[in-house]
Specification:
The complex is a heterodimer of chains A (about 375) and B (about 290).
Chain A: E1 2-6, E2 11-15, E3 25-31, H1 40-49, E4 62-66, H2 75-83, E5 148-152, H3 161-165, E6 171-173, E7 180-182, H4 192-196, E8 202-205, E9 210-213, H5 218-221, H6 228-231, E10 238-243, H7 254-261, E11 266-267, E12 278-281, H8 288-295, H9 299-307, H10 313-321, E13 331-335, E14 338-342, E15 348-353, E16 364-365, E17 370-371
Chain B: H1 2-15, E1 21-25, E2 46-49, E3 51-52, E4 67-74, E5 78-86, E6 102-108, E7 127-133, H2 134-142, H3 147-150, H4 174-178, H5 182-185, E8 197-202, E9 209-210, E10 217-223, E11 226-234, E12 248-256, E13 268-269, E14 274-278
The chains are: A alpha+beta (about 375), B alpha+beta (about 290).
Chain lengths: ~375, ~290
């Protein structure tokens, strides 16, 4: 075991391989306040990558209803309960064990092994809320019942458990963008990655007898384009870019800005120790204890910042850029009410107003001689 | 501490080598494995001790199968091994999270006198492996299972490239379809129907690569809680192991219990090489 730096835990941790960060790291940020579980991302991914034989059950991108929804069934609670206490110190340092540190000597990672039936209910518990709704109940503010939607792809972790567990070393992390891939020529389908990935984003293909996973849409990324799940998100809740570790963070990088500068986007289940690279803006209305378990000790801080966004023109401008271009934004700027995104070469790829102009129409249309209404 | 234990174990096993496995010369066709052939009754059975692979994680906590009974015969051109062990459940894998019962035998490649590390060989000192799986035997006997056979009740609207209309759309070749099965498109031998036994070369854990088929065969049957498998191979293969009548070499064993979710490095193995001698068919000299 090597000692590696995990900034999400604010400490060093054990990992089977030496620390070797890629030149840049693929990352997606999701604003959970906006996701409506329309599953357009899931279908964009499915039609692009998993329409073949043996992939019938696969959703490299899925959206589940939290707290109860899960694909495969109960993937989160089953690994968390095996991990034991997951405490954080006041300074934000993780004091529990990661899946690598807690592993038995015979294993590479704390895990559970999903079975056939665990994969068969991708929409389990859709729209189920936390808590019972008794007869005669009525809405109070803030709501005492809650749920939220959690869209998930592979997190292309800095310390991937799939890669750590593969006895054939058939899994590799690309130097150029940090995307984690399974070599389909070397994989023998042992399923060790399926067992070890705590997020359960490696999946076995019974037709090819190998394991497969989200490829981060690398052919698009290589051309400066965001992945299909991001491009097709109709709620404009996602942005894909490249994240730097905090000691190299750049304020004009959209992902660095939201994760490091603003601290409003957080990794999910960072205590697992893989340094996942999908980041979430937590939903403001969900249970604080639950959010803290899922997004770490800064979850409620992020919620407070989100509630204060009305006073933050720069973040508002960046939110307007999300979903406004298919291209990867390496840099952004917000000036004089206009938000702009730039590609790697520094060329402007999109420009949007921070506040959409307001148009007021008279309620009577003299040309048609009709009353206008707002019914679409 | 673990290393010390391991060294002790290896020496313990080495002391128990004894005569090893003798392959008796017979006059019979061995190119078609037959686990119930009468010639097996004249072949001496050796009991081979197995233990859970102890070197690298992931590995089993315990030995799912602790012993294997082995016999061998040869005819001067082919050599066959009959391997039997107790296994309460038949597992041939196929669906998600299922694993196959399997057994493998290995031989040194470079030197039959000084074999490489028994744990799948060493760098520049490979081993030649014959890997049988119940799954591979099923492929050979009944064909590689289709998705419909694995999941009879599965509902699929359509596979995009299998759409057939009244002839307006040109049929799409199997090759084009396989571009959508990544491992097949890559020519991964794992994704194609097997002949019963895979031949591999390996230079240590995680390095095995499949050789093109060279007529080696593996067949057997499971009944009343026991597997009986025959692996038959030619005595020599260029670029791989070479056995000679009247000479000695070594053989190693590995075994996977599919019912205990064993696969890959989760296996039981022999901790040392078993000497293997091929008799020359002459009566032993007094």
């Amino acid at each position: 075991m090597a000692k590696v730096k995990n900034w999400q835990l604010k400490r060093d941790m054990d990992f089977p391989y030496e620390e070797k960060r890629p030149k840049r790291q693929w990352a997606i940020i999701f604003d959970l306040n906006k996701c409506i579980a329309c599953q357009t991302c899931s279908l964009a991914c499915k039609t692009t990558w998993t329409s073949g034989k043996g992939q019938e059950y696969m959703f490299w991108n899925n959206v589940e209803t939290k707290p109860y929804g899960s694909y495969p069934l109960a993937w989160d609670v089953r690994v968390l309960e095996k991990l034991g206490h997951q405490d954080w110190a006041k300074n934000g340092e993780y004091q529990g064990k990661t899946i690598f540190e807690g592993a038995e000597v015979t294993e590479k990672a704390v895990h559970f092994n999903p079975k056939d039936e665990d994969w068969m209910y991708p929409n389990a518990s859709e729209d189920d809320c936390a808590g019972n709704v008794p007869a005669g109940d009525h809405i109070q503010l803030p709501h005492d019942k809650w749920f939220f939607y959690l869209p998930r792809t592979c997190a292309h972790c800095t310390y991937p458990a799939c890669l750590a567990a593969c006895p054939r070393k058939a899994i590799y992390k690309r130097e150029e963008d940090g995307i984690v891939l399974i070599d389909q020529a070397r994989c023998k389908g042992y399923g060790e990655c399926v067992r070890a990935c705590p997020y359960k984003k490696s999946m076995y293909n019974p037709h090819t007898r190998t394991s497969e996973k989200c490829v981060g849409c690398y052919p698009a990324v290589e051309q400066g384009l965001q992945p299909m799940c991001v491009q097709n998100c109709i709620g404009k809740i996602r942005i894909m870019g490249f994240i730097n570790p905090p000691w190299k963070a750049r304020e004009d990088n959209p992902v660095d800005y939201l994760v490091h500068k603003k601290g409003i986007a957080l990794p999910y289940y960072p205590q697992l120790g893989t340094e996942p690279n999908i980041y979430y803006i937590p939903p403001v209305h969900a249970d604080p204890a639950y959010l803290t378990q899922m997004f770490g000790p800064n979850a409620m801080d992020a919620v407070a910042k989100y509630r204060a966004l009305a006073k933050d023109g720069v973040t508002q401008g960046l939110f307007m850029l999300m979903g406004s271009t298919d291209r990867i934004m390496h840099r952004f700027s917000v000036k004089e009410g206009q938000a702009r995104g730039f590609d790697e070469a520094g060329t402007e790829v999109v420009s949007v107003p921070v506040t959409e102009p307001l148009h007021v129409r008279a309620d009577w249309d003299p040309k048609l001689g009709a009353v206008r209404n707002n019914t679409p | 501490m673990r290393l010390l234990l391991l060294v002790t174990l290896i020496f313990t096993c080495a002391n128990a080598w004894g005569e090893g496995l003798v392959s008796r010369k017979i006059d019979a066709d061995l190119s078609r494995p037959d686990e119930s052939a009468s010639y097996w009754s004249g072949a001496r059975a050796e009991t081979i001790q197995l233990m859970g692979q102890p070197m690298i994680a992931p590995r089993p906590k315990t030995s799912a199968v602790s012993g294997l009974s082995v016999q061998s015969v040869h005819n001067g051109k082919w050599i066959a091994f009959r391997l039997s062990w107790k296994d309460p459940s038949y597992n041939e894998a196929g669906k998600l999270g299922e694993f196959s019962d399997a057994v493998a035998i290995e031989f040194p490649v470079k030197s039959n006198e000084t074999p490489p590390p028994v744990f799948m060989g060493g760098k520049d000192d490979p081993v030649h492996v014959f890997h049988w799986r119940a799954q591979y035997q099923r492929d050979a006997e009944k064909g590689k299972p289709t998705m419909k056979e694995l999941y009879p009740n599965m509902s699929v609207d359509a596979y995009p490239l299998e759409f057939v209309d009244s002839g307006k759309i040109r049929g799409i070749s199997e090759e084009s379809r396989e571009a959508f099965s990544p491992a097949k498109a890559q020519g991964n031998p794992q994704s194609y129907a097997k002949t019963g036994v895979d031949e591999l070369l390996a230079e240590g854990f995680g390095t095995s690569s499949v050789l093109p088929s060279d007529d080696a065969q593996g067949r057997g049957r499971w009944r009343t809680g026991e597997w009986s498998i025959v692996i038959a191979r030619k005595l020599t293969r260029d670029g791989a192991s070479k056995l000679e009548q009247g000479k000695s070499s070594f053989v190693g064993f590995a075994l996977w219990d599919g019912g205990s979710d064993e696969v890959g490095s989760r296996k039981s193995v022999t901790m040392s090489w078993t000497p293997l001698s091929l008799d020359d068919g002459q009566a032993p000299k007094p």
